[in-house]
Records
---
Amino acid sequence: MKLELKGITKSFGALIANDHIDLVVESGEIHSLLGENGAGKSTLMNVLYGLYEPTAGEILVDDKTVKFSGPADAMAAGIGMVHQHFMLVPVFTVAENVALGAESTGPGGILNLEETRRKIREISARFGFDVDPDALVEELPVGVQQRVEIIKALVRNAKILILDEPTAVLTPQETDELMDIMRQLKAGGTSIVFISHKLREVKAVSDTITVIRRGKVVGSADPSAATTELASMMVGRSVSLTLDKADAEPGPVTFKVTNLTVMNDAGQRLLDDVTFSVADGEILAVAGVQGNGQTELTEAVLGLHKHVQGSIVLDGNELVGRSVRQVLDAGVGFVPEDRQDDGLVGEFSIAENLVLDLYKKEPYSKFGSMNRAVIAKNAEAKVAEFDVRTQSSQDAADTLSGGNQQKVVLARELARPLKLFIASQPTRGVDVGSIEFLHKRIVAERDAGTPVIIVSTELDEVLELGDRIAVLFAGKLMGIVPGKSSRELLGLMMAGLPADEARAQLDGTVAGTAGTTPAGTAGTTEGERS
Amino acid sequence: MSVTANILPSKVVDRVAVRSWKTPILFGALALFAVVVFVLLGPSGHATFRLSQEGDAWQVPNLVLPAKVFGIIVAVVCVLLAAQSYRQMKNDGRIAKWVTMTFTVAFVIGLMVWIIGGTKTQNITLVGLFTGAMLITTPLVFGSLSGVLCERSGVINIAIEGQLLAGAFTASLVSSITHNAFAGLFAAAVAGVFVSFLLAAFSIKYVVNQIIVGVVLNVLVSGLTGFLFEKIMKIKVDGVTIYNQPAQLPDLPIPFLSEIPVIGPTLFRQSIIGYFMLILVAALWFGLFRTRWGLRIRAVGEHPMAADTVGINVNRTRFLNVLAGGAVAGIGGAYFTLVAVSSFSKDMTGGLGFIALAALIFGRWNPIGAALAALLFGVAGNLQSILSLAGTPIDGQFLAMLPYALTILAVSGFVGKSRAPAADGEPYVKG
């Protein structure tokens, strides 16, 4: 089935999210839409899927103009979509989710799920999915949930499948599997629109690449094009994708976490007996799929968690049991993973946001009254230093783009002399141009001798920044490996294999064979500092 | 085939079993209460439960239990079950259903025997207890079923009280004017729908906070019916009020079934509203959990956007459900003036609409659960009024409080987890 978009424009008030976009997806091809966060890819696909009505333009399926007033129309026309945030009801079974909206029923609307189960088993068998139709969706790993979404589209006879940032929640191995599935679907005649900002994945799987920037198509590219070329098309100027970072020169170990366990109110272990340390002048990158204890780790250090056991020592001082202010005063700089909710006060000005943790101290305030002149001057200096793109430092923080917001957070946190710097997802939703800048600042902080912890779910970022890499899975530390470790090794660890077993599997040996554990792996947590 | 498939964790990630000690602790405390109160402070006489009324076709002999001995048995059973619940939680991380059920039943019976044994007369008629309870239970069931319809689709219905009251008023007025109780019943449903329409229009269409709209509607209906009660229902013609003399719905005993001791008079000697209630509970349960209609409604209440992306019109579904909920609550309101008492009085629902909400939560948003919770509240409420006549060792007001204390325990997760539909109260606005 051939799909054509002609002059699609979608505006929300004054904001033009899509500006005369033309796109042709040929039958049986994998067509990638490459663009940064906020470039308008998802908006375009929501128009195509009938969730938004286009302001102008038309959609053609097999050269015939179609009009979608809702997702039901789009599905009837053979378009299926796997959303970035899964559209699955967590408390329903797989079969109920797949059946929803297209139920087979007996007399009186009585559900007949047997038909749906049969279809699920059939599709599962064809593509090698291991999906039980009667499993509860909320109990399935995200990778499997994604397959349920794909099954949902296939059951509805989708001829064109839109995958919106499908790899964001997957481990590298799951990503590889997804790509295999995409190729199989293509071989079966399904067209695929693959939306991503990850260059490596786009190059690996696409037949055609269309690049979108600021709501406009800026060109198309061949998958064989160089990564830097794609990146500069996406960003609009040449960017350097590799960080020129010198090797770390670790000093003494000043930050130690010992047997750290964090529990939720119900007593579930969110972080389970984690032990590691970071030396001065070293970056420890914490990798793992979203939701495996990374958030709890950073929050525990900062003193945001109630149920914390174990010890966190910075520069000889115990941090467990301290208040957040005491922890900050001990010299901890913290970039939270959700900058809009936790890192900034959106309605406050940039200048005010830059002193959120300093407003009590001189010279920013005196006798309980803020000194606006000093705060404004500080803001001017920081805006210049961190290249924050804004009209005025008195503008509200939520008028800034994601990248510039993050620069403000980073500028504030790095303003104090630090003994430890923690950044959670420092570049999530940030444009490529800003990523470069943010990474350089983080490395500069390391080179100034501060121990740095970076938490990231993006493997590229982890490999880029980490001098050593710790991998968390289900709240447990799978091990700490050197910064130049292979993607495959990290992928296996992110999927739940301890470092030594993962290595053994990669070496082709059978994991777990008695007596073959290589010497030294017992000390994976501490012994790997190179 | 993918070469990497074998290394993925194929099964669901193991979860640490969450051990909640709330239930064993609660059972332990209640068992201790049983030992102290039923055994040590137990009355020495007998508790008599009268199972048949005079004139029943089958006369069943009275159940006479020695209060002290029975109290000891109950206390022992409670202690054993509390120990069992502790053991199960320790070993399996969960408590078997039969333990909870048996414990609850044993404790409640023990409590009854202790209370009855302590009264002056030392006897109680079970038929009276249950048939009286139905006066409270019936409107509660309708109210909570209205809540089920609304909240399963994601709209919080605080206006149940207002819907009941509107139904009660309209039923009385229309039945008085037409001299036809069925016209009153129909008008009550319409009145409930009207209140629901306001709730739906404001909360779904104009995205006003659902709690606030609901509370305002309750006040509005209370004020409006109070005003009309004064202005219309008190009009006298030839010395009698003519607009508050509703024709009543007669009891329709089902032959044979209505002769079963206790159950017969309670369930099979009711007005048409009572039978409709029984059918509605079963039909709603079946509809929600076994039909396409129910699957879609639950999807809309749990994850409206997921429902939208498969072509279900979320807001229309919600609107219709809220209207249906209004009709159900309106009929429940009609029960007050067409069956329970013979005229309308100001604010006669007396907060039962809010208790219906509690029954809904206690019953875990399930029609059958909500109905059983309503029955529990009804029995407890009626027991209190019976006992205050019989003279009890504990204050009647204190007994009246117990079911609601139980509700708070239930809602706070002592007796298993009560989980509301995920999108309950969240308006759905397209991007």
Note: Chain A is about 30% helix and 25% strand.
---
Amino acid sequence: MRRVFIPITLAAFMLAQPSLAKIDTGAKVSDMVVTDANGMTHNLSDYTGKRIILEWTNHGCPYVKKHYSTNNMQNLQKQTTANGDTVWLSVISSAKGKQGYLTGAEATLKNIKRGAEPTDVILDPAGVMGRKFSAKTTPHMYIIDETQTLVYQGAIDDNRSANPKSVQGAKNYVLAALEDLEAGIAVQDATTSPYGCSIKYAR
Amino acid sequence: MTRLFGIIFCTILIYISTCLPTLARQSLPVDTGKVTASLISSHDSVAPGQSFYVALRTDLDEGWHTYWRNPGDSGEPVQINWILPSNMSAGDIHWPLPKPIPTGPIVNYGFEGTPLFPVEFIAPANAKTGDILTLKSEFYYLVCKDVCIPENGTAQILIEIGDTVTDDEWREPIEKALELSPRKAGVNGAIDNANNRIQMTFTDLPKGDVSKSYFFPYPQGVLQHSQPQEVQIGADGLRLETAPDYLWDEGDIPKNISGILTYTDNGIYRGVEVDLTVNSTVDIGAISSSKASPSIGDITVWSALIGAFLGGIILNIMPCVFPILSLKALSLAKTAHNDRSANRKSAWAYTIGVLTTFILIAIILVIIKSTGAQIGWGFQLQSPKIVGWLAILLFVIGLNLLGVFEFGAGLQNTGASLTKKDGFAGSFFTGALAVIVATPCTAPFMATAIGYALAQPALIMFIVFIALGFGFALPFLILGYMPALLTILPKPGPWMVRFKECLAFPMFAAAIWLVWVLSFQAGANGVAIILTSTMFMAFAIWLFKAHAKWTKILAGLAICIALSLPVTLSPSAATPSLDPVTAQTDTQIWSQEAVAQNLAQGRSVFVDFTAAWCVTCKVNERLVLNTKAVQTLFSETQTTILIADWTNKNDVIASELQRYGRAGVPLYLVFTPKTGAEKGIVLPQTLSYDVIKEALEN
């Protein structure tokens, strides 16, 4: 009986609940309460006045490994947060039992081991934040400016490969966007196609 | 020990495969983990200057997939790097036809099973017989199931120059792959972004079924891969509608977008390559059908049947059917303590009455549909004549229940004798009457099923209606076979007379409701006509009580007048005055332009597709829409309410209902600046404050 009900219910509610609604680049990010690896809650709006970089991550994903094994991601984290006005949040939207899922303690330990220094790790096993941002891949990068406007979303760089060698010489879209912001001009590549593994959402 | 031997053996194999050229038309297979890959060739040996194909053959483990040239929301395409003799070059990959692979909310484009990736080569013209061409490939693919693994490997294949000899084993699979690989076939296409909806239009379609077509774009960022593509078929072509992605936001969109349009031909899944001209449309003629595309939640015959069946059962407790069913309950109470086989017969007679009526309705629908008219469920009550006759019928039944008169033997087949006769005819006509009165109620589940049925060929439509009928009759069928349930009822006695009389009042209430419906359809005059009819009917019944011959003739005459008066009823010219959502909020008449206008002013829109005869609509209006909470919600969210009144026949409304896969009312839509005017959010038929709130705030 349940198998029968599902298609009907699906048909009835399909249009009522779009699976991934995207936030357009240039749109304001509304209030969003998230929980970090220490169990503390933050509202994204608390960071008004600061820049926020969101990094969707999954330590088991080859594309994420590419950026951590080459220290590319760690360097980017240190470089961008050095000024103190930028907050880097690594977000884990893997559901419990799926690849990439970590508890708060595991996530902290993982970062110590690999020398990663995000400001905080956000745990999103229910996928609420991921779906709200329409995050699709790991890595998937977002930049929110001081006025809580989404100014960049997409890939970390322009080499869409899992091969660690491809980090060298790739154009890093996050750095480019930050440079545009520093120069006071509009971000030139404000939206790009993210690449990587699909996020292991709860179904 | 055996393991060590295995390792040595493998090492030797690898050594042979990379170092010793063997004249095989298949390279040694390379197991890269989740995939076993090899190169295969269409020819064993070729003449100088001749063209031939070499394919990368990948055999994927069960449940794993690799990716198309546009991998969709995530992933990475299959890649082949050729290392060739200096005077040779490789052609492009002839990509196999991809399919959408959903993972949670993410949709990828890729392959499962054993996809082949053929590439064309041309043997150097200056090659000599006996030369050997060494074609080496480094390949790479991301293979995913729940997790993703990048895998790579190398393989080489050797082709001899000499006579043309095709390969027995691999020529055929390669030719098959080439045949199924989409190519251009003269299909015209265009793509446009209007009101934040992508419209892709196609003409000069290939032969085959395009009702489940899907477009795979080559570039990313054109359309949101995770959103369904809605199919509309026109007289001269096809339209697909879906959500745009970021390329449209910044004017980065190229002038042409290429991709693959899929279809099925004789059950085979196929595709053609199409170049879409950006920011234009091609004329596809009159739209004939609309259906959501395969990726998500496509309703099948089976789910339509089950939906219809469940809908039928639920119809029993809908307010419009209840009075009639109390009649049936009464007749069962009479027989409850009698004869079991009589109970069964009567249950079956009732069922047959229900089914016959549903089939009759289906036949009428088929006939009307074949004339090209736009109709839907509840159409019977769109005619004021039928509403009038029904009101008279219910009034007469009410009088009969009250004991004003008893039917004579000669009238036993009129259908109103049902309470008097426990026989076949009585039960049969109860069933028929129940269906007719049930038509204004659309139960949950039923709406989708009937909406589906109306868009299908006649046969499927009949089957869906029969399923609906069986569901509707089921409760009484069960009672017929489980008399134990009936013994719960008290013993027959004087209470039955009182109970019967009491049932007259729901009948009168139903008649009043029909007259009220009529007042919207035919105005005050219509009400006067129908009340006059009921007066003539009552007069006839009174005359029948006298036994003189002339009174009977006069009575017959009165009945004729009573029944013919409704014929003069016609829809009043006045615009619909239905005003269901009455409170202070901004209420307007629905039109597509009105939706767009309100959105342009930054307002949200709630559309109420309703009809005076639709009881579900009335219940929703009373219990939800007209409540203070919802009205406040509407004014706080700056929402305009648009009323689409389907009490009378209206083709524009009917086609709009059809666009959402519905055959009848109610239908509730919410448009916000986010959704755009093209496609609203469909709310469930049973409304609640939370549902509306969520839709408006989303």
Note: Chain B touches chain A through 52 residues (CB under 8 Å).
